[in-house]
Specification:
heterodimer; A: six-stranded mixed β-sheet; elongated; B: mainly alpha; 29 helices
Chain lengths: ~375, ~550
C-alpha cells in the first residue's frame, strides 16, 4: 500500500537549497497537504516524490520500495499539475485514457476505466471536447480524471485549484477529497492556501525555506502552533512583544511594552527574564465598552472597523501603542464605534508564548 | 539637450493618427513596389517570350529535368535534415553537459559561412586530392548529384537545428512530464505528446530547409559537375529571356503550390498518437539506445557537416606559409579583384540591412499588432513570406527582366533591390514574432502612464526586442553576403561569392582559393562571435 517516506531529502539548485533535509512519513490512504508560502520548496518536494526531479541527498520510499533511481513512469503515481497539462492535441477521452493505453492495458479495460473516471468527475458528455473548449473547472476535473485513470493508489496534486475562481475552487476541493476517500487513495496535495489545506487535509506539513516546520492535523496546527511562523501562517494571530517576568506551573506572567502585565500559558524552552512573543487569536478576545477592571485585560481605543459579512473586524490601539485585531460575529453583538474606549480581555488558555525569534519578529513572519 | 527635445517632438507627432497611418501605408507601398510586385511583373512583361522554349522540345525537356532535380534534392535533403536535426536539437536543449553550449555554437557554423565558401570546402573535403580522397587514392565523392545532396544537407541542417532548438526551449515540459507520470516510457511520451505538440515547428523547419535548398545556386555550381538543377539551368541560359521566364515561372508556381499545400494540410496532419507499443517503446527508450542515438548524431554532425564545412581552412593555413598571404594583402594579381568584390559584398550587405530595418520594422508591427485589421494583416503576413519560398535565382531573373525597363537604373541599385527582396522576409518574420511575444498589456500600461506611441516603442518594445532585431539584422546581412543565384542574373557586378565561383571554374590554385574562402570564414566567425556576445545563452536568437 502506498505510504510515502522521505528520509533526509535535500535538493539544491546551485546555491539555493530548495528542500533541506526533509523527513516525513505520509500514511496509506491519508489526505496530506504540503503547505507553505511561494518558493518554500513544497512543489520541489512533490516533484521529488514523483521522480520529476532527483534528490541530491536522502531517500524517497513509496511503500517499501526505495525509488530514488526509479523513473516517473515506473513509480505508479497519478500527478495533477497546476497548469493541468492536458495534452492540447487530444480530446478529453484520449487524455483520460492515455494512462491505461501507455501502460499496455487492453483496449476494453482502458475504455472501462475511461468511462468510470469520466462518470466520477461528471464530464461524460464532454468526452469529445478538446482542452481549449473546456472551462477551467472542467479542465481541472479532466486532469484529475486522467490521473485517476492511470490506476495508481498514490495521487499527487500540485496546487490543483490554483488557477480557478474562488467559488469553483471551494466546490472542487471537497469533490477531490471525496473521490480520493471513495477510492481509498493516498493523496499529497501542495497548496499555499491555508484555508484550503485546513478544509481538506487529514494532516498538514507546514514548510518554510525548504524545511518542514511542523506536521499535524489542522486542529493541532491551529491550537498548538510550535512557532511564531505557524501561529501566523495557520489562521491569524496578534503578536505582542515582551518579557517573561514570572513563571509558575500554572502559568506565566508576560510583561508587555509599557509595563502591561498579562497572564499566559506556560511557554516551552523559555525562561524567566527571556524576551518573548505573546500570540493571541483575534477571535479569542472578549471586548467590552468602556474602561473596566477585569482580570487579564488591556485597555484600548477602536481605530478602524471593517465589515466582512460573517464577522466584524476591529483594529484596536492599545494603551502601550501596540495594535491588535479583534474579530467578532457581526450579527450577534452590538457594533462599536471608531474612537470608542474598550477593554480587551482573554483567557490565558487561549494564548501562546514563544521565545523571541533570533532573526527578529518581522523576518520570522515574512512569507516571501 | 537637443536629443530629448527631438524625441519628445517625434513622440508627439506619433500620436497623430494621420502620421501613424502614413508610416504604415508607406511601408506597405514600399513592400509592394520594391519587394513583391517587381518579380511578378517581370515574368508577366516577358510572358510572350516563352514561346521560344515551347518550340524547342529538347530545351523544354532539359528545363523540366532541371526543375524536377531541384525539387527532388530539396525534398530528400529536407527530410534527412529533420531526421538528423531533431536529435541534435534535442541533445542541445535537454543535455546537461556544459559543452552543449559549444555544440550549439558549432551547429551554426555552416549557417553563417557563406555558401560559396562552403561549396568549395566540401569540394576539397569529399572530392579533391587533399581531402578524404587522399585516403582512397581516387575521388571519394565526385562532383555530381551525391555531392550536391551532401552540400545541401550541410547548409540546411543548421536551419532545422535552429528552429527546433527554439521550439524545444519554448515547449512546456509539463506535457511530457504529465505523460511520464501517467506511465509513458520516454519514447512514448515524445512520440505521442511532445512531437505532436511541436508539429508546427517540425513543419516549419522542413519548409525552411526546403526553401533554402531550392534557392541555393553558387555553392551548388561548384560541386554539381554535370548535374543540372533549376538554378544552374537558369544560370546557363542567362540572356535567353524566354528560358528565364519559363523556368522561373514554373519554379515560382511549383514552390508556391508546395508551400500552400504544406500550409493548408500541415495543421491537419494527424500523427499516430493513439497506438502505443509499451514494451517495444520502453526498450527503445533505454539509456543505451539514447547514448547510441547521441553518438550517431554527433558523428553525422562532425563528419558530414562540421569538418567538411571547415576543411577549406587547411589550404588557407598552407597559404599563410607559402607567400600567398603577402600577395593577398598586397593586392597582387587576382587579389585586387578579390578585395574589391569583398568590399562590394559588405557594402551591399550593410545598405540592404539598414534599408530593410527601416522599411521592415513598420511592417513587422502591422503584422504583429494587426494594425490594419485582422484579415488584411493576416494576408500581409502570408505575402511577406513569398520571397522566402521563391528560389532566389528565379527571383533574380524576374527582377532583372522588370528593372531592365528602367534604363537609368545603375547595376548596384539593381543588386541592392534583389538582395532587399530576398532578405526582407527574414527580418520581418523575426521582428513580428518578437513583437507578438510581448504582451499587449505592456504597451497598454505604457499608454495609460502617458507615453505616446513612439515613446512606447522606444521605451518598451525596442528594449525588449533589440536582440531579435539584432539577430534578424545579422541574418539579413549574412544572407546578403552569401547570395549568389540572384546576384549572378541581375547584374554583371562581381560580389565575393560570385568571384569564388568564377575562381573555381577558372582553376585558380587551391592555396589562393583556400585563403580567399578563409578570409570570408574569418569575417563570418567575427560576426558570429559578436552575435554570441550580444545575445548570451544558448538558442536564444
Amino acid at each position: 500500500m502506498p505510504d510515502v517516506r522521505l528520509v533526509n531529502v535535500t535538493k539544491r539548485y546551485g546555491k539555493i537549497v530548495a528542500v533541506d533535509g526533509v523527513n516525513v512519513h505520509i500514511y496509506d490512504k491519508e489526505y496530506f497537504s504540503l503547505l507553505g508560502p511561494s518558493g518554500c520548496g513544497k512543489t520541489t518536494l512533490l516533484r521529488l516524490i514523483a521522480g520529476l526531479v532527483q534528490p541530491d541527498e536522502g531517500e524517497v520510499y513509496i511503500g517499501d520500495r526505495l525509488v530514488n533511481d526509479v523513473p516517473p513512469e515506473d513509480r505508479d503515481i497519478g500527478f495533477v499539475f497546476q497548469t493541468f497539462a492536458l495534452f492540447p492535441h487530444m480530446n478529453s477521452w484520449d487524455n483520460v485514457t492515455y494512462g491505461p493505453r501507455v501502460k499496455g492495458f487492453d483496449m476494453k479495460k482502458a475504455e472501462t476505466i475511461g468511462h468510470e473516471v469520466l462518470d466520477m468527475v461528471r464530464l461524460h458528455e464532454r468526452l469529445d471536447a478538446y482542452p481549449n473548449e473546456l472551462s477551467g473547472g472542467m479542465m481541472q476535473r479532466i486532469a484529475v480524471a486522467r490521473a485517476l485513470a492511470a490506476g495508481s493508489k498514490l495521487l499527487l496534486l500540485d496546487e490543483p485549484l490554483g488557477q480557478l475562481d474562488a467559488k469553483v475552487r471551494n466546490e472542487l476541493r471537497y469533490e477531490i477529497r471525496r473521490m480520493t476517500k471513495d477510492l481509498e487513495l493516498t493523496a499529497i496535495h501542495v497548496t499555499h492556501d491555508q484555508a484550503e489545506a485546513m478544509a481538506i487535509s487529514d494532516r498538514i506539513a507546514v514548510i518554510k525555506k525548504g524545511k518542514i516546520l511542523q506536521v499535524g492535523t489542522p486542529k493541532e496546527l491551529y491550537m498548538t502552533p510550535k512557532s511564531v511562523f505557524i501561529a501566523h501562517f495557520i489562521g491569524e494571530s496578534n503578536f505582542l512583544e515582551g518579557y517573561v517576568s514570572n513563571l509558575s506551573r500554572t502559568g506565566a506572567i508576560i510583561e508587555l511594552r509599557g509595563g502591561i502585565k498579562v497572564q499566559a500559558r506556560v511557554p516551552k524552552n523559555i525562561e524567566k527574564g527571556d524576551r518573548a512573543v505573546l500570540a493571541i487569536r483575534p477571535e479569542t478576545f472578549v471586548i467590552e465598552k468602556g474602561m473596566k477592571r477585569i482580570k487579564n485585560s488591556i485597555l484600548g481605543i477602536v481605530e478602524r472597523i471593517t465589515f466582512e459579512g460573517t464577522n466584524i473586524r476591529y483594529e484596536i490601539r492599545l494603551r502601550n501603542e501596540d495594535s491588535v485585531v479583534v474579530v467578532r460575529p457581526s450579527l450577534v453583538e452590538e457594533w462599536l464605534k471608531v474612537g470608542e474606549k474598550v477593554t480587551l480581555s482573554f483567557s490565558h488558555e487561549n494564548t501562546h508564548v514563544f521565545a523571541y525569534p533570533e532573526a527578529g519578529l518581522r523576518e520570522e513572519l515574512t512569507v516571501e | 539637450m537637443l536629443e530629448p527635445k527631438i524625441a519628445k517632438a517625434l513622440d508627439k507627432l506619433s500620436s497623430k493618427t494621420a502620421i501613424k497611418n502614413t508610416v504604415y501605408i508607406v511601408s506597405i507601398i514600399i513592400f509592394f513596389a520594391l519587394i513583391l510586385l517587381p518579380p511578378i511583373l517581370g515574368i508577366i512583361i516577358k510572358w510572350g517570350s516563352i514561346e521560344d522554349v515551347l518550340n524547342q522540345p529538347k530545351l523544354m525537356s532539359e528545363a523540366f529535368n532541371a526543375i524536377a532535380a531541384s525539387f527532388a534534392v530539396a525534398f530528400f535533403v529536407s527530410f534527412i535534415d529533420v531526421v538528423a536535426g531533431v536529435p541534435m536539437a534535442w541533445m542541445i536543449t535537454r543535455g546537461k553537459s556544459k559543452w552543449l553550449s559549444v555544440l550549439d555554437t558549432l551547429s551554426d557554423i555552416p549557417f553563417i559561412v557563406p555558401t560559396a565558401t562552403l561549396g568549395y570546402s566540401l569540394l576539397l573535403f569529399w572530392s579533391e586530392a587533399g581531402g578524404l580522397s587522399s585516403l582512397f587514392g581516387a575521388s571519394f565523392v565526385s562532383p555530381g548529384w551525391l555531392l550536391v545532396i551532401l552540400l545541401h544537407f550541410t547548409f540546411s541542417f543548421p536551419v532545422v537545428v535552429r528552429v527546433m532548438v527554439g521550439a524545444l526551449l519554448d515547449y512546456e515540459l509539463e506535457y511530457e512530464q504529465a505523460a511520464r507520470t501517467l506511465g509513458a516510457a520516454p519514447l512514448t511520451a515524445d512520440r505521442t505528446v511532445t512531437f505532436p505538440i511541436l508539429k508546427h515547428s517540425l513543419i516549419a523547419s522542413f519548409t525552411l530547409a526546403f526553401a533554402r535548398s531550392l534557392s541555393e545556386t553558387g555553392a551548388t555550381m561548384m560541386v554539381a559537375g554535370v548535374f543540372v538543377h533549376g538554378p544552374i539551368f537558369i544560370k546557363n541560359h542567362i540572356g535567353e529571356a524566354g528560358t528565364l521566364v519559363f523556368v522561373s515561372a514554373i519554379l515560382i508556381a511549383l514552390s508556391s503550390i508546395v508551400f500552400v499545400t504544406i500550409r493548408l494540410l500541415g495543421p491537419r496532419l494527424k500523427m499516430p498518437v493513439r497506438k502505443v507499443w509499451p514494451v517495444t517503446e520502453r526498450k527503445l527508450s533505454s539509456s543505451t539506445i539514447a547514448s547510441s542515438r547521441n553518438g550517431i548524431t554527433l558523428l553525422v554532425f562532425f563528419v558530414i557537416v562540421l569538418v567538411p564545412s571547415l576543411f577549406v581552412a587547411v589550404p588557407a593555413f598552407e597559404a599563410i606559409f607559402t607567400g600567398v598571404l603577402p600577395e593577398a594583402l598586397g593586392r597582387v594579381g587576382v587579389w585586387g579583384d578579390y578585395w574589391q568584390s569583398i568590399s562590394l559584398s559588405y557594402f551591399v550587405g550593410i545598405v540592404v540591412t539598414l534599408l530593410n530595418v527601416v522599411i521592415g520594422l513598420p511592417m513587422a508591427i502591422i503584422i504583429a499588432r494587426r494594425k490594419i485589421g485582422n484579415g488584411p494583416s493576416a494576408v500581409l503576413d502570408v505575402l511577406v513570406n513569398i520571397p522566402i519560398i521563391v528560389p532566389s535565382v528565379a527571383l533574380g531573373a524576374s527582377l532583372a527582366i522588370f528593372w531592365e525597363n528602367f534604363a537609368f537604373m545603375p547595376d548596384v541599385l539593381l543588386l541592392i533591390f534583389a538582395h532587399l527582396s530576398i532578405t526582407y522576409p527574414y527580418f520581418v518574420r523575426s521582428m513580428s514574432a518578437a513583437v507578438e511575444r510581448i504582451g499587449m498589456e505592456l504597451e497598454e500600461a505604457g499608454r495609460t502612464l502617458g507615453a505616446k506611441p513612439l515613446g512606447v516603442f522606444r521605451t518598451i518594445i525596442f528594449p525588449l526586442t533589440k536582440y531579435s532585431m539584432l539577430s534578424g539584422a545579422i541574418m539579413m546581412f549574412t544572407r546578403s553576403v552569401s547570395e549568389t543565384g540572384a546576384t549572378l542574373v541581375v547584374s554583371n557586378l562581381v560580389t565575393a561569392p560570385v568571384l569564388l565561383v568564377n575562381w573555381v571554374e577558372n582553376g585558380v590554385p587551391t592555396s589562393t582559393l583556400g585563403l580567399g574562402c578563409g578570409f570570408l570564414i574569418l569575417f563570418s566567425f567575427t560576426i558570429l562571435l559578436v552575435l554570441r556576445l550580444v545575445v548570451k545563452g544558448r538558442g536564444s536568437y
